[in-house]
Amino acid sequence: MPMNPEDRKQFEQSLLEPWDPDEALKGLVLQSQVEGEDETTQANRILREAAPMAAQAVVHIAKYARSDSLRFQAAKYVIERNLGTVNNESSTSPKSETSPLEQLLGAVVKDVEDYANNGGNHNDA
After folding, report:
1. How far apart are alpha carbons 110 and 11 in whole angstroms?
2. How confident is the chain (125 residues) per 10-residue block, as mean pLDDT?
3. What is the value of pTM for the model shown?
C-alpha cells in the first residue's frame, strides 16, 4: 500500500533527524500499551516489517559493494537462504536429489570459497 503524501513527508523528515534510542524506546513502550502487544510480538512485527528492506539491502551489497569479499559473502547468504547450504559430497554425487541449478550453484560457491581461502591462487590439485 503506497504511503500518503503527508506520511511520506513525515517519514522523509524523520530520516534527516538524528536517531535517539531513548526516544525510540519510549515510542515503542507507548505503542505497546496502546496496541496491547507484548515485547516479543512487537519485536517480531518490527522485524517482519523490515524484512523486505533488509533483503533488498543484502542484494544491493551482493551487487554493488566495493569489496569482493563483501559481495561474495552477501551473494553466498542470498543463495544459502534460498537453496540451503551446500553439502560438498552431495553436490558431486550422482545420487544427489538436488536440482541441476542447485548443483551448479553449489559447485560455483565451493570454487569461490576455495579461491578465497587460497588467497586468490587457483589450485586445481
Report:
1. 43
2. 74 77 88 88 90 91 92 89 69 57 75 74 51
3. 0.50
